[in-house]
Amino acid sequence: KSGHQIQQLTTEISANEVKINSLNLKIEHLNNYIKELQSDLKNKENLVAALRKDMREMKAKNEMLAKTISNDELKFMKMGHELEEMRKERNLVGLQMVRRNDEIVVIKEKLQIAQNALDNGTTQYNQRVEDIRLLKKEISNLHTESECLKHAIKSTADMRKEIVRLQRALNQEHIRIRALTEDARTPTGVHRWRILKGEDPKKFELLEKLQLLQKRSLKQSIENSNIKNKLCEAQKTNETLKRMLSHMPTVEIKHKLVVQQ
Fold it and tell me: pTM for the whole thing?
């Protein structure tokens, strides 16, 4: 019975040894697996550390990017406000340009009107200058004619003195002239004229001179009347020219026209 127990125990021990060997193999496999797991864990930990480092770096970059984005957003907002102000200013400038263009058109129209007025004024001024030149020439001619008329009137006055002197002689011979004139109307009177020419040449010459003076006196009276009429017309023309000259542009107006031009 004890031998059977020993054999049984030996068998159990052999079986247990097999189990122990099998367990040792499993333990060895498990140890190897654990080592592999530890190595893998180490790698994973290194990877996690690297990932954490990358995450920290990414976080720092994200924070920097967020800050940059925030700054850019502020810049964009500022640029947006500036752009809006620029748009408002552009619209204002556009309105001002439209107004300026309208003002320029109005100014150009006014300038054209002023230029036309200036051209018309210049033309009228040149016409007035030409009129003044012609009027001055006419005045000069009138002055010359007036001087001639004055000399003629003076000569007429001298002639009147001569006529008065001869008139006195004429009065002295008036009675005799009447008688001689009556005789001259008859055929016998003609002979008396001829007889008088032969007997008293001085009286005959005086009669002829008186007749000539009478003709000259009549002619001179007519000429004096014409001269007086011409003088009156010349004085009227002179007064008219003076009035016209008073309405002509003065030197000051001429200077203003030149300055405006």
Answer: 0.34
Higher pLDDT, 234 or 55: 55
Tokens of 255: 């200077």
- Contact by Cβ (8 Å): 234, 145: yes
Domain positions in the chain are 135-260
- Give the separation between CA 155 and CA 49, rounded to whole angstroms: 147
> What's the distance, CA 147 to chain centroid?
51
What span, in angstroms and rounded, lies between the C-alpha atoms of 159 and 165?
A: 10
Q: Which two tokens stand for residue 98?
A: 């439209």
The answer to whether 180 and 192 are in contact (CB under 8 A) is: yes
Enter the tokens of residue 113. 């009107």
CA separation, residue 39 to residues 30, 34, 35, 36, 44 (Å): 14, 8, 6, 5, 8
Q: Are 257 and 249 in contact (CB under 8 A)?
A: yes
pLDDT tens for 185-219 read: 554 444 455 555 566 676 667 667 767 766 776 67
